[in-house]
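Re: that backbone. Tokens:
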């Protein structure tokens, strides 16, 4: 297990240095009520008092229910300024606008919400001279379980090297709200959605494979398939000078 007291000190120092070098006045992050944003929010608040949490519900009933409750529990416990921006109407408009010229599949529709959320965060950040904190962990990145130019976009990320299991351990150390620690990982994109159900493999299996290279044969097939098809998400966009490199 990591030394989370030392990890806290190092990550808080990293955030402060990032802020200082950017000359930004604060930090804004999207608060879904989940484990990753909880950890990021706590660390950012420790590093910078001017840290703002923004809950960004987008049609899903879960966003307006338990997600909202858990997001509030975090901000209240750690004294983080909190705001809510409802993106439901914007998603309807985007779906109608693009849907008027082409048929939209499930992937296209599902990824609208994460991209609208990032647009909102960067708009708020620009208006207040703030950096946008990323909230993705190592396991999600490895699996490509994030939206390109959505939650995969950020100015800095203080937890990108942590597996899901390590995020949970860190939250236990920091005494995050129990409801968040016990909550099944979910992007909250639609009713009943959970990461593990959608991927078909548990994060415990993903973490084990990342850290040891070991996995059951079926889990290994799923993990390697997700990793291979999502390579483009982990690379910078291809430009002409890169051709043949």
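Recovered sequence:
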């Amino acid at each position: 297990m990591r030394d989370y007291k030392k990890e806290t000190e190092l990550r808080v120092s990293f955030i402060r240095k990032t802020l200082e070098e950017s000359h930004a006045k604060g930090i804004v992050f999207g608060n879904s009520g989940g484990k990753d944003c909880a950890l990021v929010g706590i660390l950012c608040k420790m590093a910078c008092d001017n840290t703002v949490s923004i809950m960004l519900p987008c049609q899903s009933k879960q966003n307006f229910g338990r997600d909202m409750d858990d997001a509030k529990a975090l901000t209240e416990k750690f004294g983080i300024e909190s705001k809510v921006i409802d993106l439901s109407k914007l998603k309807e408009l985007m779906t109608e606008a693009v849907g008027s010229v082409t048929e939209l599949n499930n992937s296209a529709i599902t990824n609208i919400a994460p991209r609208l959320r990032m647009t909102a965060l960067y708009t708020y950040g620009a208006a207040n001279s703030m950096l946008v904190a990323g909230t993705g962990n190592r396991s999600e990145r490895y699996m490509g379980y994030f939206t390109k130019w959505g939650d995969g976009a950020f100015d800095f990320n203080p937890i990108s090297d942590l597996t899901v299991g390590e995020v949970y351990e860190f939250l236990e150390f920091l005494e995050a709200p129990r409801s968040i620690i016990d909550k099944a990982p979910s992007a909250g994109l639609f009713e009943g959605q959970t990461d593990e159900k959608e991927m078909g493999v548990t994060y415990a299996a993903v973490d084990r494979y990342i850290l040891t290279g070991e996995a059951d044969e079926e889990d290994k097939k799923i993990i390697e398939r997700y990793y291979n098809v999502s390579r483009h998400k982990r690379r910078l966009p291809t430009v002409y000078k890169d051709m043949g490199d």
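The chain has 13 helices and four strands. The chain has a mean pLDDT of 94.
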